[in-house]
Amino acid sequence: MDDPIRPAFQRDRDRIVHSKAFRRLKHKTQVFLAPTGDHYRTRLTHTLEVSQIARTIAKVLRLNEELTEAVALGHDLGHTPFGHAGERVFRELIPGGFNHYEQSLRVVDVLEQDGLGLNLTWEVRDGIAKHSKGKDGSPVGIELSRRAATLEGQVARVADIIAYVNHDIDDAVRAGILNPDAVPCELTAVLGGTSSVRIGRMVADVVEQTLSDKNAVVPEIRMSAGVLRATLDLRTFLFDAVYENDVATSEFRKASGILEGLWEKVHEQPGTFLDRRTLERDGVDVAARDFLAGMTDRYAINLFEELFIPRSWAQPV
């Protein structure tokens, strides 16, 4: 049904913002599990930073800002608890593997609104499904089959990597895992020495390169070869120095223990944790995956403690 007040993409954006999955992002880890400081990113603050960067690019390029924002706000709705560590566990644990972008699409198509989904437009759904780059994928210059069909979806994809390669460095420095001067000088020479400078240069490069190619047969969001190479090298540096370092490996083991324990318990007693209609429709593996992937960090920790950690039951004398 047409909305007399809101265009379709604005309606999609609003539905995402009002969804339960969006609210849960505030208690899902971006990089660091259970950080004690107040200034570390969560999956929600990451999403908001992606949205801001994406909308800035879209505005300069005169694209549909509301479509761009809707894709950016919805891109991580299917992310697991415990950040990168949680997704690694899910890939090893769940039959058939796990990809958060596929789960994000499932959230908006099926899981929200008690199984009815959010009824989003095709353009937003396509952008969500094709935003992910993984460890080795490029944010631009990919084959058509893996590229978002709209320029707005492509903008959200490139805004995602611009956001996380910069704010994850900030958080790693704040956590004492990374020295502020540890970023290789050949990368800072191209991108800049601070997050704000790097973000500004990356955004300006995307805008300049995309506008310079406006006569292309198939329009595409672009980056220059030098900035793209430096961005990908910065991501590789982050994986080596932050995401897969000794601290992250230790956190991965903790997340593994919690999620594996919950996965086994849900399979032992599916009727205790899962809705009967969901079980009948999807089977225990899919229903358990949806249940666990939707958890926040603290919900998973609290449920694990309730199920597996002994507590005193004796009455005080």
Automatic annotation (TrEMBL):
Pfam family name, one: HD_assoc
SUPFAM superfamilies xrefs: HD-domain/PDEase-like
GO function term, MF aspect, one: triphosphoric monoester hydrolase activity
Key words, A-Z: Hydrolase
Domain HD intervals: 43-165
InterPro entries for this protein: dGTPase, Diverse_Catalytic_Enzymes, HD/PDEase_dom, HD_domain, PHydrolase_assoc_dom
PROSITE patterns, sorted: HD (PS51831)
Protein name: HD domain-containing protein
Species this protein is from: marine metagenome
